[in-house]
Amino acid sequence: MSLSSTPTSSLSHDEPDTAAPVPARRTIALTVPTSLLVLPASAAIVGMIIGMSRGGSRARLRFLAENAHRPPTTVQGWYFYTKTRNYRVFFAAARTGARYALGLGGATAAYVLLDESVGWTREQVFGAAQSSASTSIPAPPAVPDATDAEPGSSRRIGWREGPVRWEDGAIAGGVMGAVVGTAYRLPRPLFFRAVLIGSIMGGATSGLQIAQDHVRKLKEKDERVSVSGESGGSGLAQPVSAPVMGSAPEHPTVDRPVQAGETAMSPVQGASRALPTAAESDRLRRRAWWDPRRWVGM
User: Fold this and answer.
1) Would you say the C-alpha torsion 151, 156, 162, 165 has a positive or negative sign?
2) Compositional bias of type Low complexity: which residue ranges (predicted)?
3) How far is CA 170 from CA 116, 128, 146, 197, 271, in A?
4) What residues does each domain of the chain span?
C-alpha cells in the first residue's frame, strides 16, 4: 500500500471548532448586610442581661413571699430552703433572659431589615447618591468572591449602593414604633411618644453609622498615604565613600606658611590625631554615665 492511501482524520486543524459553548452556571447570591450580623446579636446580649437580672430578682422575691410564713428551723431545713431558692432563681433568670433576648434581638433584626429596605427603595425612586464617602457595597449579581474586594478594605456590606442616610433610620424607627404601639394597643399619647422615640433612636443609629464610615474612610486614607510614603522612600541610600589616604581632597586647600607656635602636620598625622587611642577609649568608657566628659569626649 502506498503512502498516499494512508487514511487521514476527518477533522482538520484549519477548520474552526464548531462545538457548542458550555453554558455558564447560574448561581443565586444572597447579600447579608453587616448591620444584620452585628446589631441583632448585640441587642440579644443586652436583652439577655436585662432579662436575667429582672427574672432572677422577681423569682427571689416571690420565693421569699411564698415561704415567709414557714421559715426553716433546722440546719437541714435551711440547706434545702437555700437550695430550692437558688434553683428557682436560676431557672427563672434563664427563662426570662432567653425571652428578652429573643424579643429584643428579633425587633432589632426587623429594624435593620426595614432600614435597608427603606434605603434601597429610596435609591430606586430618587437614585443613588454616589459620592466619595460611599461605604456600602451593593448587592453583587453573582456569588461574591473575596478576591474582588480591595485588599485591607473594611467597607460595610448592604443593600444600598450609596452612603447611609439618617432619614432611612428615622423612617424605619418610626415604623417600628407604630407597629409596637399598634400591637400593644397603646393610648394615643403613648402611641405618638413611641413613634417619636423610635424615629429619634433610628436617626441616631444611622448617624452613628455615618460617623463610623467617615472615621473608617479617614483611617484607610491615612494607611494609603503611609504605604505610598514607604514605597516611595524605600530606595537604598548610596554609601558615602571615605577618602583614600594620599588622594587629592574633594575641596582643595590653599597652602600657607606655618605660623609661630604651630608645628607642621601632614594629612596622615592629622587623621591619626583625630582618632582616640585605645587607652583614651577605655578611659572614656570607664567614666560614670553622669560625667559630662564621657559624652563630649574630653
Assistant:
1) negative
2) 1-11
3) 12, 18, 33, 10, 80
4) 34-140+154-226
